[in-house]
Amino acid sequence: MRRVTLDVQVGLPAREASAPRRPAPSRTARMRRAAWLFVSPAALFFLVLIAFPLVSVLWRSVHFASLTNPTVTGFAGLENYRTILDDDTFWPALRNTTVWTVLSVAGEYLLGIVSAVALAQPLRGRALFRGAIIIPWVIPIVVAGLDWTWMLTPDYGVINLWLVKIGVLDHARFWLGDMSTALLTVTFVNIWRSFPFYTISLLAALQAVPQELHEAAAIDGAGPVRRFVSITLPHVKTVSLTLIFIHVIWTAINFDFIWVMTEGGPLNASVTVPIMIYRYAMQDYDIGAACALASLSMAFMASAFFVYYYGALRRAKGAAR
Is residue 214 one of the residues assigned to a domain? Predict the structure, then answer.
């Protein structure tokens, strides 16, 4: 008894025996900690290369800023946005961006689904055609744009030469210099370059369609068109919507093709919102107005994303019911 009392007074053995032990971290906690450890480089990458520039653009959109005049500073409020809306080029650029995006995505999807269905058929040399069709998409945009610019030149372009020889045109036409054809010509070239991406993606989706469904539908008397509408399209719906949504964003913010081929001309006939952003920043050196226009573009893209996301979520809930 005396020995126990001494031990308690000294405090070591008895206190150690009575001290509660911390429970070891569970397997779930260890896995969560390891997951955060692996995700942290990607999160840091996101913060440095995406989040910080995004916040910087939003901040500068409400401040005066110039590349050539460091004295131009201060809070602008909505003045930069007012400058954009008062610009006579803004509404034509917005209309051209809409036309450019809608026609490009529609043409790309139409050619992509047709070529994917054709390449899914048991034809001789199918592997060769599947490999060759990707060539336009792997060509750099600058190279493709310059090549098509040379081919469309009225003086020595082969496109005009062929069209005149077969009787489609009476004389060579300046496709990129005519206000009525400049934007449509660049759109056509963009469709030519981008539709192979649709082809490859949709062809992969078509490979997953059960052949038994087509055979059963054919036995029931369904023709090729009926089988395509009732069987093929529903099975590639998810891939199609994803491709269309991604390419709407990619096309709307595309700068390279139009700048290489027309630079937004002639007389702003093919100017788009990205071209306006470039002009504000690199020609007028008005960083505040350029960031304001970029912020408006981001707001539109974010709105389109949320509409698509919640629409898909609602469709998924409806299907689950």
Answer: yes
CA dist 236 → 117, 202, 206 (Å):
11, 7, 7
Mapped onto helix, strand or coil, the DSSP state of residue 178 is coil
Instruction: Residue 206: give its domain's CATH number.
Output: 1.10.3720.10
Tokens matching residue 141:
């945009």
Residues of the domain holding 251: 91-261
CA-based nearest residue to 200, from 115, 138, 139, 104: 115
What ranges in 120-235 are assigned the alpha helix state H?
126-132, 135-138, 141-151, 158-165, 182-207, 211-219, 224-227, 233-235
Cβ-Cβ contacts under 8 Å for 296 (sequence gap 6 or more): 81, 84
C-alpha separations of 168 from 163, 185, 208 in Å: 5, 16, 42
Burial 285-308, CB ≥16 within 10 A → b, else e: ebbbbbbbbbbbbeeeeeeeeeeb
Please give the chain's pLDDT, 321 residues, in tens.
444 444 444 444 444 445 566 666 677 888 888 888 888 888 888 888 888 888 999 999 999 989 888 888 899 889 999 999 999 999 999 999 999 999 999 999 999 999 999 888 888 888 888 888 999 999 999 999 999 999 999 888 899 999 999 988 888 899 999 999 999 999 999 999 999 999 999 999 988 888 888 778 888 787 888 888 888 888 888 899 889 988 998 999 999 999 999 999 899 999 999 999 999 999 999 999 999 999 999 888 888 888 878 877 887 777 666
Q: What is the DSSP string of 134-150?
A: THHHHS-HHHHHHHHHH
In a domain, 216, yes or no: yes
Give residue for tokens 């989706």. 205
The reply to whether 207 falls in a domain is yes
Indicate the number of domains in the chain.
1
In this structure, is residue 62 part of a structural domain?
A: no
> Phi and psi for 100 in degrees, rounded to 5?
-60, -45
Q: Specify the long-range contacts of residues 47-53, CB closer than 8 Å, at least 24 apart.
A: none
